[in-house]
Design goal:
297 residues, alpha/beta, 20% strand, globular
Amino acid sequence: MSTTTLLPDVGTELREGYAEVGDASLHYVEAGDGPLIVLLHGFPEFWFGWRLQIAPLAATGFRVVAPDLRGYNLSSRPDGVEAYTADRLAADIVGLVRERGAESALLVGHDWGGTVAWTMAMNHPEVVDRLAILNAAHPRRLQQGLHNPNQLRKSWYFFFFAIPGLPEEVVHARNWHFFRHFLQDARPPYTDEEIERYVEAWSQPGAATAMINYYRASVRQSPKQAEAQLRPISAPTLVIWGQDDAYLGPDLAEPDRDDVPNLDRVERLADASHWVHHDEAERVNQLLIGFFAAAEA
């Protein structure tokens, strides 16, 4: 099922639809025609987080699909923490690629979407042609980082979200002040209209619990289990990193070469926050277009 609509704040005509993949129904927007690019948002965003990338990528000759990850916005919300493991999330996107009629795709992930992208490239290498990661540490690098007191302080909310029940009460308070706080270091600041789009997504019934369940699922897995699941990533990989990230230190940007042997480079943007695709949209778009165009040459 799909409909066509024009969203002025995205700047291009979008086709909206739902993909039935396993136990989830994923809402997505799509624009353009050509080789498939899938954009995976992070916390606490939804497809709208890519509003500054969709039109430029589509205009360059790509077909761009930006889903709401399971639990977010208009996608379905399966019950239980176990429904939000990285393996499940990655399998969703494999299903989405196939549902959109492709065998493989160019993949972009930011924050939690980056974790999903890393996992998908490890678990399903045949589906990932090229991988671009924005401010999302490779799983091994993140585990290493969490042994550092400075990074542990930055990641405090991982452990707060693991508490049953309480986080849901906190995030709803004061008109979603807690979730708004995560977006406050963007430069330029998100507009009131943009924040209202996020509030609308967070306010979908059950969305807050589903978003928090990503963190609950991640901390339930032991470091030993997580390490046992790591596989080298064969896809050519570009890392784009906003250096002024309040949540992830700059030392987390560079993955181990053994884990990502085809690393193209780590592009560090000095004045960008965690929201690098918002802060430095034009530069990010240039980097993505150049990296993905090379695959089509």
